[in-house]
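FAQ

Q: What does a record look like?
A: Structure on top, sequence underneath. For example:
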């Protein structure tokens, strides 16, 4: 039974899609934009530029041959992979990967620990997938988990992984981005301990060293103009504020003090 249709005006996309479908012995329809999509089609393959022009609920953008992984997941559901993990290397710009049965399907480099939309989209894209997160970068990890908890709830299961040795040494201009992504892949490949978001974010113990490191970091980020208070540094360590938010609060406090003195 036909279950896939290629609908695109892009010859390159059509060639890639048709070639991969034939290699995988998946029957398909070849349609033009505007053609009626047969009732038995479950997934439409199209190009990025044609995506919004195709009126169909279940679409996949074909950029290269890796589209087959997403297609097989949609056609076969969870039977394609036994174990799917969304792995996170926490940090100022977290690395994220999707690892299924020791195979890397997707990788991302997020803008900040609160940039969780990609993770939520991946959970929707891969039903039944579990989240793995490295145990390092505590304040960034807690900040990300608290952001996830607002959507998923504090009882959502999380696998915590010892990430020691997961970050490789890489040279080059974009080395830091590659390191974060590779570290997330290694986290996805490692065993860990399943717990809940609640367990990983609870507690209010912050060491003096953590507070001093955060205060020093605030001086660096503000170009030496601002040093946040110990109270604000503690909130950053607990994941209640980003360090950028703490710097802005400190700036407002100092401006208010200056205005009060002038009066």
């Amino acid at each position: 039974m036909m279950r896939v249709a290629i609908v695109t005006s892009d010859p390159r996309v059509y060639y890639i899609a048709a070639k991969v479908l034939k290699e995988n012995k998946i029957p398909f329809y070849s349609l033009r934009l505007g053609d009626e999509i047969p009732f038995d089609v479950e997934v439409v393959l199209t190009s990025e530029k044609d995506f919004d022009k195709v009126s169909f609920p279940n679409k996949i953008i074909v950029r290269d041959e890796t589209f087959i992984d997403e297609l097989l997941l949609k056609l076969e559901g969870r039977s394609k992979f036994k174990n799917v993990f969304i792995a996170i290397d926490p940090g100022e710009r977290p690395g994220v990967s999707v690892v299924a049965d020791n195979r890397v399907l997707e990788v991302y480099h997020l803008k900040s620990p609160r940039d969780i939309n990609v993770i939520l989209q991946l959970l929707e894209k891969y039903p039944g997938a579990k989240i793995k997160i490295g145990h390092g970068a505590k304040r960034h990890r807690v900040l990300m988990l608290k952001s996830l908890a607002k959507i998923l709830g504090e009882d959502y299961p999380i696998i915590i992984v010892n990430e020691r040795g997961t970050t490789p040494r890489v040279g080059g201009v974009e080395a830091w981005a590659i390191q974060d992504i590779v570290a997330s892949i290694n986290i996805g490949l490692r065993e860990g301990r399943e717990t809940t978001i609640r367990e990983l974010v609870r507690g209010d113990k912050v060491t003096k060293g953590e507070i001093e490191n955060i205060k020093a970091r605030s001086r660096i980020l503000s170009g030496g103009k601002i040093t946040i208070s110990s109270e604000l540094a503690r909130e950053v360590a607990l994941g209640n504020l980003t360090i950028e938010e703490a710097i802005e609060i400190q700036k407002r406090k100092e401006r208010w003090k200056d205005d009060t003195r002038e009066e």
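Q: Is there anything notable about this one?
A: Strands lie at 4-7, 28-31, 43-46, 59-61, 84-89, 95-100, 103-109, 130-134, 157-161, 193-196.
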